[in-house]
Amino acid sequence: MSLQLTDVTLTFPDGASRLTAVDRVSLSAPPGTLTAVVGPSGSGKSSLLAVAATLITPDSGRVVIAGTDTSGMKRSQLAALRRSTVGMVFQHANLLPSLTAAEQLQVMALLGGRHARRARSRALELLDAVGLAAEADRRPHQLSGGQRQRVNIARALMNDPAVLLVDEPTSALDQQRGAAIVELIAGLTRQRATATVLVTHDQSHLAAADRVARVLDGRLTLQHDTVQRSIPADHPGRGGTLST
Ligand SMILES: Nc1ncnc2c1ncn2[C@@H]1O[C@H](COP(=O)(O)OP(=O)(O)OP(=O)(O)O)[C@@H](O)[C@H]1O
């Protein structure tokens, strides 16, 4: 299991008391599957994703990423673990205005301590995978909203993460471009055997997911598997047929 949350609770200060944003949630995400997390506004979806990303430490419960139990880890250790095993895609692409599409990806590899020349070829390979081979040398202002989000997705995959966490990636896009982005994420999840968790408001995105988790008032109320899929057997450490 690439991502495992066990009995996780997260609270925030709320006046004299505390608000429970995530309430005893257990969720596991196997490699090569897309888990959609849906629920009304304020139900705790983003909080759950932030805990899974180790950006926030929960009050209680356990987060295991790619076999590493993150409990008690120092901030620097968590940052290193995130760099090597977690890719994150947020609502807005947040690209650096002065860098080309390829350079946005190369920066990630250099931060991850990878070799510069290999970083360039990997960046071009990933931009091709998201349909942007011809846009590699364009800067963000020369790209459409959907293209910027594709660069964002490719960037998140640069360090070959075991876990891909995606928060509302289509909110700035129209229905058609949004659906194409979710299809792209689903395809990359299977190709690259990432354990992907996608937070979305949009019910129409659920068709692309293997599993659906519903959150209400911080609780996971229902989780079901939609289909059975196989993942590439030659992917290191992630191969085999998967029964979700
Ligand atoms: N940093 C914070 N400090 C205090 N309360 C917070 C904080 N972040 C979230 N909350 C509260 O936790 C609850 C869950 O919020 P969260 O953003 O996780 O929900 P969500 O389902 O992602 O909502 P949306 O779909 O609107 O983004 C809400 O009541 C919210 O007000």
From TrEMBL:
Domain of life: Bacteria
Domain ABC transporter: 3-242
Keywords: ATP-binding, Nucleotide-binding, Transport
Molecular function GO labels: ATP binding
Pfam families: ABC_tran (PF00005)
Keyword presence, Transport: yes
Record-linked InterPro entries: AAA+_ATPase, ABC_transporter-like_ATP-bd, ABC_transporter-like_CS, ABC_transpr_LolD-like, MacB-like_ATP-bd, P-loop_NTPase
Listed name of the protein: ABC transporter ATP-binding protein
High-level lineage: Bacteria, Bacillati, Actinomycetota, Actinomycetes, Kitasatosporales
